[in-house]
Specification:
mainly alpha, two-stranded antiparallel ribbon, 1% strand
């Protein structure tokens, strides 16, 4: 049964236009990078004896695409490819079908997961293929050495495959158990914060080995391993899977494997029947009081319909207040605020030091620290919260009920 589920889902994934769109985005991005380093464009380049098609250069490109905004884009694309493997059955109300079929939990869970994983490998392989195609334009130039396929495949196997497995199972599990992709997008933001904090930690040379071990994507481990390589080493050596890099890869592959099996053993088909709540316990949900049932239609209060301008403004303000309270009490908003506090507490340790001279935390220092982080936070809050407001009724399958209420589209839009 595993092969049937795996192949069916894999064929379905490769029939989706988004699979090839994401592949094309990565292909074009790295294609232009390859063309730029090949000298096809008239751009300023540094004077270096390192060729751009060596294993170390390709590895630098791959790990560099996991940094900053590009890292966030990678994570968002991975969520779109892998996170909804099981959640889509709940979204489209097809999950009751699996109760009537002789499908084992292992076949269902791993069939869906590995089909998504193979699809993600294809999508991210576009980074390597695009960069390889771009470097071909530099054949015969000093910036390019001999073309060996392993110079491109080895960094993909060492860095991309474990990273896709680690992030993929996290996104897959989080979305499966919460039944919402919003939680996975929130985790993407958390990863971006972790990357930023790692960069702050590694600013101190004494912490480089610790950061190289615990940074989950291998960028710090690669830099630590190759920091003393000569240009000859960078041009001719493959990436040695040893030392701190081997420890880093084994550590996070082990964590990914543990998360995979924990997710598998905790998964139940019946979980789709139980409402998910992040902060409310089951006991508190059981203690919710319900009003007494109305035994006759004659006991219902008679509604008075009023469609005046005053009532329209009342609806507008009421719905605006309702949405504001719902947003500020949502787990997404609360976690974002906690992330902001964590970031400030982390970077405040080195905020008052300028060239090893302690200074007072003046306003300009606070602004310098806050602006890079919180500008991104504000943008992400606007994107995710506005998207949640617009699509919440459809996700909760109450859009038809809301559409039948006597509230105009103008009130709903502006509220």
């Amino acid at each position: 049964m595993f092969s049937e589920i795996f192949l069916f889902d894999l064929k379905r994934n490769f029939r989706k236009p988004q699979t090839y769109i994401f592949f094309g985005v990565f292909f074009l991005l790295t294609l232009f990078i390859g063309l730029a380093v090949s000298g096809l464009f008239d751009v300023a380049t540094g004077d270096s004896n390192v060729v751009f098609n060596s294993a170390s250069s390709v590895a630098g490109i791959i790990v560099g695409l996991n940094d900053g905004i590009l890292g966030l884009v990678n994570s968002v694309i991975l969520v779109a490819v892998m996170a909804t493997g099981i959640q889509k059955d709940y979204e489209y109300n097809t999950h009751p079908l699996y109760y009537t079929k002789p499908i084992t939990k292992a076949s269902y869970f791993f069939g869906r997961f590995f089909s998504s994983f193979v699809t993600a490998l294809f999508v991210f392989l576009g980074q390597v293929i695009g960069y390889y195609a771009g470097c071909l334009a530099g054949i015969g130039k000093p910036v390019m050495g001999p073309f060996e396929i392993m110079n491109f495949l080895q960094p993909f196997l060492i860095f991309s495959v474990p990273n896709i497995l680690l992030l993929g199972i996290i996104f897959f599990s989080v979305t499966t158990f919460t039944r919402s992709t919003l939680s996975s997008y929130l985790f993407c933001v958390l990863l971006m914060v972790i990357r930023s904090l790692t960069s702050t930690i590694t600013a101190d040379i004494e912490n480089k080995e610790i950061a190289a071990l615990w940074e989950p994507f291998g960028a710090e481990a690669l830099g630590y391993l190759t920091q003393y390589w000569t240009p000859v080493d960078q041009n001719n050596r493959m990436i040695p899977l040893e030392g701190i890099l081997l420890q880093n890869r084994l550590l996070w592959l082990g964590i990914a494997t543990v998360i995979t099996f924990i997710s598998f053993f905790r998964f139940r088909f019946s979980q789709f029947l139980v409402p998910f709540s992040l902060f409310k316990s089951k006991s508190s949900a059981a203690r919710v009081s319900h009003p007494p049932a109305i035994q006759s239609l004659s006991l219902l209060p008679k509604a008075q319909q009023r469609f005046s301008v005053k009532e329209t403004w009342n609806q507008l303000f009421y719905l605006a207040k309702f949405e504001f309270v719902k947003m500020t009490r949502s787990s997404f908003f609360i976690i974002f605020c906690l992330l902001g506090i964590i970031v400030m507490c982390s970077v405040s340790q080195s905020m008052g030091a300028i060239y090893a001279t302690e200074t007072y935390p003046g306003t300009y220092q606070i602004i310098d620290v806050c602006v890079p982080f919180f500008q991104i936070f504000i943008m992400l809050l606007m994107v995710f919260l506005s998207g949640t407001i617009i699509w919440r009724e459809r996700e909760n399958k109450t859009d038809e009920l809301v559409g039948a209420t006597p509230v105009s589209d103008t009130v709903l839009f502006f509220s």
